[in-house]
Write a structure and sequence with these properties.
The complex is a heterodimer of chains A (about 350) and B (about 270).
Chain A (H helix, E strand, L loop, with lengths): L1 H15 L8 E6 L6 H9 L1 H8 L3 E6 L3 H9 L5 E5 H6 L8 E10 L3 E6 L11 E4 L4 H12 L8 E5 L4 H5 L6 E5 L2 H6 L4 E6 L8 E7 H6 L1 H16 L4 H10 L4 H9 L1 E3 L3 H9 L2 H15 L14 E4 L2 E3 L5 E5 L2 H7 L4
Parallel strand pairs in A: 1-2, 1-3, 4-14, 6-7, 6-8, 12-14
Antiparallel strand pairs in A: 3-10, 4-10, 4-11, 5-8, 5-9, 12-13
Helix pairs in contact in A: 2-10, 2-11, 3-10, 10-15, 11-12, 13-15
Chain B lengths: L10 H29 L9 H12 L10 H33 L1 H16 L6 H8 L3 H25 L3 H9 L4 H38 E2 L3 H8 L5 H29 L1 H9 L1
Helix pairs in contact in B: 2-10, 3-4, 3-6, 3-8, 3-9, 4-6, 5-6, 6-8, 7-8, 8-9, 8-10, 9-10, 10-11
Classes of the chains: A alpha/beta (about 350), B mainly alpha (about 270).
């Protein structure tokens, strides 16, 4: 009996433990969002396979329908890389002790996330209202930053956690007077009568960043994996002026070319590797991450061990934010630099 | 040689066999969690029992830093209020409409097909319609539970009423009972224990709809908390919450069973002798 238990538990432990040994097969996951649709195109057009073949590895690209679930799967070790925002990279994998590297800085939200009020035109009017949003998401962060900008705090509003899938339907009820959300839901909601976007991410440019995050240990043991992903990404980026490519991405995200174009307009894509590198190297990045870390700590999502907002170290080219001896999130532009220099 | 189907375990063995699966599950969990934590002490997927108990302590026995409330009890109270209200209203609707439907052919002709069809509509599929009709507040959550469970209870009550032997109804009428008197004195007492049984069976669905409603839009509640902390994979909070929901569901089921045994002992004798 004991032996059976031992064997079963051993198998379970082996199955569930993340193994980061050198291997030739890698997998990344992504979820539907304007800035991540290129991964879908890269997969279906064979660009990712081409680059993987070049470095003699295999890369599986998996679409996950639920954004948070995709990050959880990555954090649990099921994937080597995953698309996510800077805030979620800090609060989910990094706070769970999974040392993660932002390999590709793809874009930042430049109006793709917004605060919408019904019948009121100024953010100050949000005072004492119920605000429906996905709690602890970038929407929540945007709201906190917005409130701060008009001298209010979260104490002045009542946050109601609302599933993103039901937000549009929720908005049509009379009890809901203000929401914070992202595209394509945002454009759906602002297109309804008497709806005013009073604050959006273009008011805090460069703070909501969309990344391809990979496991630091895997990347260190397998630089080929990083090179192949980055090489593929910038080849996809070079095709994004092509209408056919954009139409493909639009359809894959269940909209049309015009709709996708509208979402791209409120997204600051880094089409060239050099732009992404200089953004990553700027002094604004550590400042942003400091805000994000403070917000996360104030909302209790930096993990139980966190005594203050500096608990987790975040490495950027312009210096480390937080604890230098506990670095769990790294912004590493070296692979993007190789792409900029044409060395991939 | 006894046949396998005739071997009854002794009391000791029965207790032993009841406990074994639980111990095996706990042991499996413990070793898998240990293995993951050895590799990454901050792993959140399979927290250790120490981490779980510190999470329980934080949620249930420490004031929340931001709000000064005990989140666990606040969540439990909110959820219990919703589910008890929902299931009570469901039971009342189920009893009244089921009774009328079963007893009065005229009403049955009009209502029964509607109820049958309504019970087949998956409530989760018509969520946007529910929002627009009932808003997003407490009412909507309770309504989702009612819509999810009431039609099934109605249908069950109706068929139970119709299964009452015709002879009884005729006998009561020959003794001069009116429709009202037959309902109150003959049908109702026989149907009450069946109602409790139907409610017990729909408790699972009620919890399902409660958690779903709280996941969609809420400020507190057991389902709300689980879906909120899922965002940063706090399994140390989710696991005790799931266990607590199971305990609450079991307690509700058990107390309904006891209530039925105390209030309707004749029914349970009858069932036992069948």
């Amino acid at each position: 009996m004991m032996n059976v238990i031992k064997i079963v538990t051993l198998t379970l432990a082996l199955l569930t433990s993340a193994n980061a040994f050198a291997k030739d097969k890698f997998s990344i996951c992504w979820s539907i969002y304007v800035g991540w649709m290129p991964w879908e195109y890269g997969d279906s057009s064979g660009i990712i396979k081409k680059w993987a073949d070049k470095y003699d590895i295999e890369i599986d690209v998996v679409q996950i329908n639920d954004y948070v679930e995709s990050i959880n799967q990555y954090t649990a070790g099921q994937f080597d890389g995953c698309s996510m925002t800077n805030m979620d990279a800090l609060t989910i994998p990094a706070a769970s002790g999974v040392d993660s590297t932002a390999l590709i800085v793809g874009d930042f939200s430049n109006g793709n996330d917004g605060v919408v009020l019904k019948g009121k035109k100024s953010l100050k009017d949000i005072k004492n209202q119920k605000v429906n949003l996905v709690e602890l998401s970038v929407s929540h962060y945007l709201l906190a930053r917005g409130l701060e900008s008009v001298g209010l705090s979260e104490r002045n509003v009542k946050v109601v956690n609302t599933s993103d899938a039901d937000l549009v339907a929720a908005y049509s009820t009379s009890g809901v007077t203000s929401v914070v959300t992202w595209n394509p839901l945002l454009s759906e909601i602002t297109s309804q009568p008497k709806s005013y976007k009073v604050f959006d991410s273009s008011d805090i440019p460069g703070e909501i960043i969309d990344l391809m995050v990979v496991n630091t240990k895997t990347l260190k043991n397998n630089p080929k994996f990083g090179k192949a992903l980055v090489g593929a990404w910038y080849e996809i980026m070079s095709t994004m002026s092509n209408k056919k490519v954009l139409t493909h991405m639009a359809e894959a995200s269940a909209t049309d070319l015009a709709g996708y174009q509208a979402q791209l307009d409120t997204t600051k894509m880094f089409y060239s590797a050099a732009d992404a590198v200089s953004f990553t190297q700027s002094a604004a990045l550590p400042k942003t991450m400091k805000y994000v870390a403070k917000f996360s700590f104030d909302h209790g999502i930096l993990g139980d061990g966190a005594v203050d907002e500096n608990f987790i170290g975040i490495e950027t080219p312009e210096g480390v934010v937080g604890d230098k001896s506990n670095i769990k999130l790294r912004f590493n532009p070296s692979f993007m630099q190789m792409a900029a220099d044409g060395k991939l | 040689m006894k046949r396998l189907m005739n071997i009854e375990p002794s009391r000791f063995w029965r207790t032993f066999l009841t406990i074994v699966p639980f111990i095996v599950i706990i042991a499996l969990y413990w070793s898998a969690s240990d293995a993951r934590l050895a590799e990454n002490p901050n792993d959140k997927l399979l927290p250790s029992f120490t981490q779980i108990s510190s999470a329980i302590d934080r949620m249930a026995f420490t004031e929340n830093k931001r709000t000064g409330e005990y989140l666990f009890w606040q969540d439990s109270a909110a959820s219990l209020y919703r589910i008890l209200l929902g299931i009570t209203i469901s039971a009342a609707i189920g009893l009244i409409i089921g009774l009328i439907n079963g007893l009065l052919p005229g009403v049955r002709a009009g209502l029964s097909p509607l109820v049958t069809i309504a019970s087949l509509v998956p409530p989760m599929a018509i969520l946007p319609i529910l929002f627009i009709t009932f808003g997003l507040d407490e009412l909507a959550k309770v309504m989702l539970i009612i819509i999810g469970t009431a039609p099934v209870i109605i249908r069950d009550m109706q068929s139970q009423v119709m299964q009452i032997p015709k002879e009884q109804l005729i006998k009561a009428q020959t003794l001069g009972a009116s429709t009202w008197l037959v309902t109150i004195r003959v049908v109702l007492p026989q149907i009450m224990p069946k109602l409790l049984a139907a409610v017990r069976l729909s408790l699972g669905a009620a919890w399902l709809f409660l958690i779903a409603a709280e996941a969609i839009a809420a400020q507190e509640g057991l389902g709300y908390r689980i879906f909120l902390v899922r965002r940063y994979m706090a399994m140390d909070v989710i696991l005790p919450y799931v266990a607590w929901i199971t305990v609450l569901a079991f307690a509700m089921d058990f107390s309904l069973k006891k209530m039925s045994q105390v209030c309707f002992p004749w029914y349970h004798h009858q069932e036992a002798s069948k």
